[in-house]
Amino acid sequence: MRLTNLLLLPFLPFALAAEVTTEYTHTNECSRKSQRGDTVQVHYRGTLEADGKEFDASYNRGQPLEFTVGKGMVIKGWDEGLLDMCIGDKRKLTIPPEFGYGQRAMGAIPAGSTLGEYCGLLDRRRAERLTVDHSLRDGISGYSRRGEG
User: Fold this and answer.
1) What are the CA-CA distances from residue 86 to residues 31, 38, 125 (Å)?
2) Do the beta carbons of residue 101 and residue 77 sit within 8 Å?
3) Residue pair 125/102 in contact by the 8 Å Cβ criterion
């Protein structure tokens, strides 16, 4: 092995870094797609890529999962993989351990597992914005939700 190759070995993990892959199974057109900070409702079916075994599904409970995208409320693979979706879109996310649960076991998910997540976006809402009510000058009580007085 040449010296140049030996010097590059420490950087090999960065060159081979894993990423979330997305298979678009159903897409819609819309004027605004999901963004970081949006609250979304998602139906999903989680499987292990190794054998296809289902480990969780919101469909079975009849209750979608609601969370804010990009806030770390879910695994990193979801925070990244559910961006730029329209309501009604469906995707299959293939999530490597680095974007899932890593090298720790989580319930029925063995350590180091690659996940297959079948997701459908049911609803999306913009994050609430705080506005200043300038008629109130008594500190923190001057903040209200938009539309509230």
Assistant:
1) 8, 12, 11
2) no
3) no
22-80: pLDDT as tens digits: 999 999 999 999 999 999 999 999 999 999 999 999 999 999 999 999 999 999 999 99
11/13 Cα distance (integer angstroms): 6
Tokens linked to 20:
């979330």
Q: Which of 59, 75, 64, 67 is nearest to 36 (CA)?
A: 67
Q: Which pLDDT score is estimated for 20?
A: 96
Helices (H), 51-143: 58-61, 76-81
pLDDT, tens digit (0-9, with 9 covering 90-100), for 118-149: 999 999 998 654 334 444 334 444 433 444 44
Give CA–CA dist 90/23, Å, rounded. 9
Residue 62: CB partners within 8 Å, gap ≥ 6?
Answer: none
Provide φ and ψ at 49, rounded to 5°: -65, -30
d(CA 79, CA 95): 11
